[in-house]
């Protein structure tokens, strides 16, 4: 009764799945590569060449070598099969791109919020510096104050000298 399966102090062992294990990320990347190729001019050129070769072979070849006579049912079946796989692969690729775009948009939004916060902080700091500079004596202000003092001293010296001249 106290077997391995009934122990509560250990997790249950994982059951092996009869299905093969697959990596969804690897499958997604492969499907994106295929979808990118399906959207190129190279794919259209290869597909056009394939269809033209198929139709030419099954039209111009001797009867015993033709494997898909007119109305080309096998070609139609192959093109339908290709289309039935292409559409989901393209959709999967678009979903993955939308997910990447959403992540990038969120990252950009956060970066913009940080930039705005930094800008507001710097604006407040500059305003504080300007307010502080309004109370700080500048070189021009100090020079003008010294000039006023020198002028007052010169006037003060000149006034007693005149009064002494008058007294004589």
From TrEMBL:
Residues 1-23 are annotated as: Disordered. The keyword Transmembrane applies. The chain crosses the membrane at residues 43-60, 72-92. Keywords: Membrane, Transmembrane, Transmembrane helix. Residues 1-11 have a biased composition (Basic and acidic residues). InterPro entries: DUF1003. PANTHER family: INTEGRAL MEMBRANE PROTEIN-RELATED, MEMBRANE PROTEIN. This is DUF1003 domain-containing protein. It comes from Streptomyces coffeae.
């Amino acid at each position: 009764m106290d077997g391995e399966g009934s122990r509560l102090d250990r997790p249950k062992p994982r059951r092996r799945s009869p299905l093969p294990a697959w990596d969804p990320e690897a499958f997604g990347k492969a499907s994106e590569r295929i979808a990118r190729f399906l959207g190129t001019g190279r794919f259209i050129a290869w597909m056009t060449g394939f269809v033209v070769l198929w139709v030419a072979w099954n039209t111009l070849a001797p009867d015993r070598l033709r494997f898909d006579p007119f109305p080309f049912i096998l070609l139609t079946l192959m093109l339908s099969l290709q289309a039935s796989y292409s559409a989901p692969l393209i959709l999967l690729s678009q979903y993955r791109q939308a997910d990447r775009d959403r992540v990038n948009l969120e990252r950009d939004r956060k970066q913009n919020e940080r930039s705005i916060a930094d800008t507001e902080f710097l604006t407040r700091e500059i305003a504080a510096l300007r307010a502080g500079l309004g109370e700080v004596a500048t070189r021009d202000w100090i020079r003008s104050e010294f000039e006023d003092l020198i002028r007052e001293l010169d006037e003060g010296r000149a006034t007693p000298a005149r009064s002494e001249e008058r007294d004589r």
